[in-house]
Amino acid sequence: MTSELTHEGTMREVVTDLGVLRYHEAGEGPPLLLLHGSGPGVTGWRNYRGVLGDFAEHFRCLVLEFPGFGVSDPGDGHPMAMAMGSVGAFLDAVGVDEPVHMIGNSMGGIVATNVAIHTPDRVNKLVTIGGMGKNVMMPGPGEGIRLLMEFTDNPTREGLIRWLHSMVYDPAIVTEELIEERWALATEPLTLEIAARMYSSKAFAANAAAAKASGSTPYWAQLHRISAPTMLTWGRDDRVSPVDMAMLPMRDIPNAELHVFPNCGHWTMIEAKQAWTSAVLAFLTREEVNR
């Protein structure tokens, strides 16, 4: 199945109040929404192309491209806020009104977690890949986030390479092809401008100050509200969101389980592909026993 799926063959688009949202669709069955992370040159396709075929054998897979990352219409807001708003708009636009399984990588995991907190009727089962939670033992932000801010402030090819290496345990994954693929989209002027709203050092500091001043309850303090069965997946050697961040969601989400993969960085679905896919498929396809 994997070899049959192509970027062009799976690409779709739908018009919403947020503009045109593009996505990839493959497979039949219960709906599975896959949400990508952030960072230079990221797309949903690049996050999930290696595992899409495996999931498409069981589910109707919908890989949403968030606004502001160079594939869907850009939008004029903060990338995280636009991502939060796009999930419901997208599901409504493609006519999915039943609860869906959600897989979210890093930022996409935070988005899916917020959906599970605030609109629980949207989520059947939740899978996150690093990213969500709160630093407990390691200082924040993590190394990968600091390198991401450095690249956003000064977008050089060398800075991109340093950031890419912080994402993985095995440096061999950072190939010339990967570097060039990410560089082309990451340095597109509008994509870079939108990234600066979230990850420039000035924006990062301003957003943190605004969140503190607002007095609003952060999402990580509301994890107990998640009713969906949840699977937290983490690379043991994650340098972007260290694995100690998993401790809070592991304890606070009522029906959560934690899977940690050794010799693996932030891109668990890429670096621990076989083990990760096997574990996630087992979780998504098993019947839940009422507890």
Strand order of the largest sheet: 1-2-4-3-5-6-7-8
What is the CATH architecture term?
3-Layer(aba) Sandwich
* Backbone CA Rg: 18 Å
The domain count comes to 1
Identify the CATH class. Answer: Alpha Beta
Largest sheet: 8 strands, mixed
What is the N-to-C order of secondary-structure elements (H for helix, E for strand)?
HEEEHHEHEHEHHHHHEHEHH
Keywords: Hydrolase
Organism: Rhodococcus daqingensis
Protein name: Alpha/beta fold hydrolase
GO molecular function, one term: hydrolase activity
How do the helices and strands line up, and which of them pair or pack?
Layout: H1 7-10, E1 11-16, E2 19-26, E3 31-35, H2 44-48, H3 52-56, E4 60-64, H4 79-93, E5 100-105, H5 107-118, E6 123-129, H6 143-153, H7 157-166, H8 176-186, H9 189-199, H10 201-214, E7 230-235, H11 247-252, E8 256-261, H12 268-271, H13 273-285
Helix pairs in contact: 4-5, 6-7, 6-9, 9-10
List its salient traits.
single chain, 291 residues, alpha/beta, Rossmann fold
Write up this protein.
This protein is an alpha/beta fold. It has a single domain, classed as 3-Layer(aba) Sandwich (Rossmann fold), CATH 3.40.50. 42% of the residues lie in helices and 17% in strands. The protein has 13 helices and eight strands. Strands 1-2-4-3-5-6-7-8 form an eight-stranded mixed β-sheet, sandwiched between helices. The longest helix has 15 residues, at 79-93. The chain is globular and about 50 Å long. Keywords: Hydrolase. Pfam families: Abhydrolase_1. Residues 30-272 form the AB hydrolase-1 domain. GO terms for molecular function: hydrolase activity. This is Alpha/beta fold hydrolase.
